[in-house]
Structures are given as C-alpha cells and as structure tokens.
Specification:
The chain is mostly beta strands. The chain has one domain. It is built from no helices and eight strands. The chain has a six-stranded parallel β-barrel. A hairpin with a 2-residue loop joins strand 1 and strand 2.
C-alpha cells in the first residue's frame, strides 16, 4: 500500500523511473480504476507525487509491470496525478 506521504518502503514515488523486466525496486500493476496511485508521465520536472519521467538509465527507482502480486496498482492519467 502506498503511504499518504507518497512513499512506498521509504522511497518517494516521483522522479525518474526505469521500466525493467526483472529485479525491480517495485512491482506494479496497471489498472483503469481503483489505483493506489495515479501517475502522470512527464518529460521533465518529475518533482511531485505521481509524476514519473520514464528513462532508460540513471533512474531514481525501477518498476516491473506485472499482472498479479504487485506491490501497488498504478493508473496512468493526463491530469490529477497523486494519491
């Protein structure tokens, strides 16, 4: 479960994010409703809760997209990001 301060296991859930196939910091499930956090993909200034800049290296944290047993559920949105 995502904490109310927009962290999970002590890591902030905003910033530069790399999507990987294994050994991720977090496993996420992409959903269309009832997410734990709403994420907006941005090209820069990923400095607020739920703003993710997708990168291929030098990430703040990594995620693996799974269909079950996720650490938390994510819904990608164009606005109203956050918890």
């Amino acid at each position: 479960m995502v904490n109310s301060d927009c962290t999970y296991n002590g890591k902030n859930l905003w910033g530069k994010v790399q999507i990987v196939d294994s050994f991720a910091d977090f496993k996420i499930e992409i959903v269309n409703s009832f997410p734990d956090i709403k994420v907006q993909k941005v090209d820069s200034f990923a400095n607020e809760c739920g703003k993710w800049e997708i990168v291929s290296s030098f990430a703040d944290f990594t995620v693996e997209i799974v269909s079950s047993f996720a650490d938390f559920k994510v819904q990608f949105v164009d606005s109203f990001h956050g918890i």
